[in-house]
Design a protein that fits this description.
With 157 residues, this protein is an alpha+beta fold. Helices cover 29% and strands 31% of the residues. The longest helix is centred in the middle third of the chain and has 15 residues.
Length: 157
């Protein structure tokens, strides 16, 4: 397994992975597949990291710097971790944890005081990962979007 910054050549694999992880994945959430334009919109304002196994993108995470456009739930001084997705075949191997830890280092380097993220209520495996790393739920910041409820988690750096 090898972790690196994503590049333009990863766009199709990343959007396919986001689609696999999020589109129609639960009772709430996104229903349509991701489009290439969404990758490029995120990559234009966030740091996107991928995990590669046997030449294939098997995981991805994005970190939006404090104040960057495109953040959904981050407040002042907060970076936002977004679009963490791990392929089924790569789960339970520490890849998601490695990407989150790398994202936290990136956020520190960007001067963030804390990192925020949102997750759907049914994404319990992700919640367990976040909580094992010290993230805490902040229900007062939860909100609804067009696809359902967003639970907000934060981690002080």
């Amino acid at each position: 397994m090898h972790i690196r910054e994503a590049d333009e050549g990863d766009a199709a694999a990343v959007t396919a992975l986001w689609t696999e992880a999020y589109a129609k994945a639960g009772p709430e959430g996104r229903q349509e597949p991701y489009a290439l334009q969404e990758y490029f919109a995120v990559a234009a304002v966030a740091h996107v990291t991928v995990a590669i196994d046997d030449g294939e993108v098997v995981a991805v995470a994005a970190v939006f710097p404090p104040g960057a456009p495109g953040r959904s739930v981050a407040g002042p001084g907060e970076a936002e971790l977004a679009r963490l997705a791990v392929a089924d075949r790569a789960r339970r191997q520490g890849v998601g944890r490695a990407l989150v830890l790398g994202a936290l280092e990136r956020a520190r380097g960007l001067g963030a005081e804390r990192v925020a993220l949102w997750s759907r209520p049914y994404q319990t495996a992700a919640h367990a990962l976040y909580e094992s790393l010290g993230w805490r739920r902040v229900p007062e910041r939860d909100e609804d979007d067009r696809d359902g409820r967003r639970w907000v988690f934060v981690l002080d750096l």
